[in-house]
Amino acid sequence: MKNLFAYSVAAATIALPARAQTMGSDPAGSSPIIAALQWVQGTLLGNLATAAAVIAVASVGFMMLTGRIEWRRGLTVVVGCFIIFGAVGIVQGLRTFASGMH
Question: Is 93 exposed, middle or buried (0-12, 13-18, 19+ CB in 10 A)?
Fold first, then answer.
């Protein structure tokens, strides 16, 4: 119950400022920053990152099956991969939710 409250407070904190920041275009001079962030996003979600995540999940899964690692710790690796690769969808969902709160 304590974690649910913390997550709901975090979601509300993230969603509220998004309403005030809705703009039609990017601010002047932000194109180098946006380009750098797109490069980071491409690097984090590219082929190399996907291969590394597959290897990590496979090795952690094997360690969980053989009893070398706790199930709880192994599941955090899997959930972390889902969050990293689903970050774009999560942010779009939060922005859609926040824009609907007019």
Answer: exposed
CA dist 55 and 77 (Å) reads 11
pTM: 0.52
What lies within 8 Å, CB to CB, of 45 at 6+ separation is 84, 85, 88
- Cα distance between residue 23 and residue 36, in whole Å: 20
Q: In this structure, which amino acid lies at residue 60?
A: V
Reported as half-sphere exposure (CB side, CA atoms, 13 A), residue 91 has a value of 6
Q: Which two tokens stand for residue 4?
A: 């649910």
Q: Tens place of pLDDT for every residue, the chain, 102 residues?
A: 455 445 454 555 454 444 445 555 777 778 888 889 888 888 878 888 889 889 999 999 999 999 999 989 999 988 988 888 888 888 889 888 888 876
